[in-house]
Amino acid sequence: MAKRERKEAEAGEVRERLLSGATGLFASKGYSAATVREIVERAGVTKPVLYYYFGSKEGIYLALMREPFGKFATLVEETVHEAASAKDRLSRLCLRAYDIFVENMDAARVMYSIYYGPPQGAPFVDFDAYHHRFQEAVLQVLREGIRDGEFRRVNLPDAMWAVIGALNVAMEVELCHPRQSLGRDGVRRVLELVLEGIVMNRKTTGKIRRKR
Q1: Entry pTM
Q2: pLDDT for 48-69, tens place per residue?
Q3: Which of 113, 115, 130, 202 is exposed most, by the fewest CB atoms within 10 A?
């Protein structure tokens, strides 16, 4: 049993070295310019090892993209159904998404280059599907917050873009201008400001109604 576990741990370590090597090369050189030879040299293995775990350069790219997006998809489903206030769920959703982004910075850099630039011959990944699901999740929580009287009635798409926009800017600053990084606590503060704009203030509402 111990021998099998050791082999599994070694296999996992080799797989991670390959992914790490490929990520760094794709991020620094671009997908098309990075070669299998460079990937295996960086990982300290041979080409057959890469073919065994991933099948091809295309296979390692797909694994590189799918793993963080898989975590992201799980995060969205878990957070949407958490037993918490709408405000807390939106804050947690964005902060956890930010965490995944920061933990996979090189993979994010590769994704941005493929999504916004030439595809470089990389296999297709439906990035838009993940973006749309995130938008739907934010809309769902906003809608529930309004329904439950936690948020005031606002234009839902406007509120969604305010929330997602704050997160996207924080991510792009982290990626392109790291010296100006907000950090996790800064992202939390910005989200707090955005969400305070739609939270129902019962005391203020009561005063307005009495004046009328």
Answers
A1: 0.85
A2: 999 999 999 999 999 999 989 9
A3: 202
